[in-house]
Amino acid sequence: MTSIKIRKMHANDIEQIMKIESVSYGEFFWPFESFISEIRSEFGNYFAAENEKGDIIGYAGFWLIFDEAHITTIAVHPKYRRQGLGEKLLQEMIETGYEKNAKWFTLEVRASNIAAQNMYYKYNFKSLGLRRKYYQDNDEDALIMWTENIWSSSFKDEFKKMKKGTNAAKNH
């Protein structure tokens, strides 16, 4: 993957984000106004990934309420999938979690989205429950995934290794 910059999401990014959102989530995607609300919220932490041309090619975000970081969205433009960008966005969220003193990360993921689940498992998320018929488009179940305390030495050490491995692979 070429030079990718991950930065804080801005309102002027949302037009490009909406194109990825609709392709990624079908008819049940977030409306433009939801993104505006999310980036303005005191709880919201949202990021955009842009290529060297300045095009938005992925985005992610989480709410931080007290010490719990709840990942609300992560999506990558179909042209850039399976190249490690989702992983880089996840790393950015975890790094921000450290900066903001989060203790845990949690999320829901489609039961059928094995690629995403494998990425989360790689980063030591555990499946700790099921939300039945969570997704409106097809009543699909969602796995509820959690990390252990991100400040534990086992999580921190593994995260550092994963991040170093991703960066080493990028430089080859």
Comma- or semicolon-separated keywords:
172 residues; alpha+beta; Aminopeptidase; 7-stranded mixed beta sheet; 5 helices; globular
Number of strands: 7
Which homologous superfamily in CATH is the superfamily?
Gcn5-related N-acetyltransferase (GNAT)
Q: Can you give the helix content as a percent range? A: 25-40%
Q: SSE order in H/E notation?
A: EHHEEEHEHEEH
Distance between the termini: 11 Å
Please give a structural write-up:
The structure is a single chain. This protein is an alpha+beta fold. It has one domain: Gcn5-related N-acetyltransferase (GNAT) (Aminopeptidase, 3-Layer(aba) Sandwich), CATH 3.40.630.30. It has 5 helices and 7 strands. The chain has helices spanning 14-25, 32-40, 85-99, 114-122, 153-170; strands spanning 5-8, 44-50, 56-65, 68-76, 104-110, 126-131, 142-146. The chain has a 7-stranded mixed β-sheet with strand order 1-2-3-4-5-7-6, sandwiched between helices. A hairpin with a 5-residue loop joins strand 2 and strand 3 (56-65). The protein is globular. The N and C termini lie close together (11 Å). The mean pLDDT is 88.
Summarize the structure.
The chain is an alpha+beta fold and 172 residues long.
Secondary structure elements and pairings:
Elements (H helix, E strand, L loop, with lengths): L4 E4 L5 H12 L6 H9 L3 E7 L5 E10 L2 E9 L8 H15 L4 E7 L3 H9 L3 E6 L10 E5 L6 H18 L2
Parallel strand pairs: 4-5
Antiparallel strand pairs: 1-2, 2-3, 3-4, 5-7, 6-7
